[in-house]
Amino acid sequence: MKNDISPEKFVKLVVDKYQKAEGIFTNRLNAEDLAPANLSDLQKALYFFYVIQLDYAMKSQRLYEGAKKLCSDIPNFFTPQEILSLPDEKLAKIVSNYLKPRYINEAVRRYKLNSKTLIDKFQGNPIKIFTSSKTAGELMLKIKNFRGFGPKIGNFFVRTMINTFDFTYSDIEQVLPPVDVHDVRIAHLMGFIQSDEMIEKNINKTKKLWSEACKKANTSWLLFDKALWLLGSEGKPKSREDISQLVGI
């Protein structure tokens, strides 16, 4: 099928559908919407900090369902003080039972190291990572202090925190959006890239593609990324025709 739609036009269509809560976007449930109710700002920030760092190589729905139950059963679990007080074996058992990460040893290592960094550098408060940063560039350098907070998880955490707490940075659009398999697959199905292989070349090409398209569409990637994730994870398109039906092209 001839590709008669530009990336920026695609961004506008997807975001418009998302903002109108139509079709696949009716529920609009992203990470920002999945924190348990009645949490304080600090509790919510800690919840995102600990849950998002494990949001890879597993089904997100299972992770967030388990995290919500864990938060209910052990209310103070998602704090650096509590995590550092637990022996590795006990921490591994709790994390495995509730969050079910694929790589439990890495999960424990991240929780321990990142808890110590959070206390040592930011008084145990993820919000201070953001309030102590004058620019998005400075923010991203601080995010890299944490184990596992690379271009995907780190930028996803940034998106979630900014959308939740309304932090503002004049250079935020210079930060590239996080990219997962859904983003690459959709870019390929739309004919914007030539392959859907999850290799570094394709991932980087997709980041730049969506970043530039958002700028041309005068739409923040912080919003488009939420809509794109839902389009891929909930819509599960397998062809351009599927995407056309979901978005209304």
How do you describe this structure in short?
This protein has helices at residues 7-19, 41-52, 60-73, 80-85, 88-98, 104-122, 127-131, 136-143, 153-165, 181-189, 200-216, 221-233, 240-247. It has 249 residues and is mainly alpha-helical.
3D architecture notes:
The structure is a single chain. The protein is mainly α. It folds into 2 domains: 96 residues, Endonuclease Iii, domain 2; 142 residues, Endonuclease III, domain 1 (Orthogonal Bundle). Helix content is 59%, strand content 0%. It has 13 helices and no strands.
CATH superfamily membership of the largest domain, which one?
Hypothetical protein, domain 2
Which class of secondary structure composition applies to the elements? mainly alpha
List segments where confidence is low: pLDDT < 50 over at least 5 consecutive residues.
Answer: none
Total number of strands: 0
Proportion of beta-strand residues: under 5%
* Main beta-sheet strand count, sense and barrel state: none
| Helical segment count | 13
Radius of gyration: 18 Å
Topology record:
Blueprint: H1 7-19, H2 41-52, H3 60-73, H4 80-85, H5 88-98, H6 104-122, H7 127-131, H8 136-143, H9 153-165, H10 181-189, H11 200-216, H12 221-233, H13 240-247
Helix pairs in contact: 1-11, 1-12, 2-9, 5-6, 10-12
Key terms:
single chain, 249 residues, Endonuclease Iii, domain 2, Endonuclease III, domain 1, globular
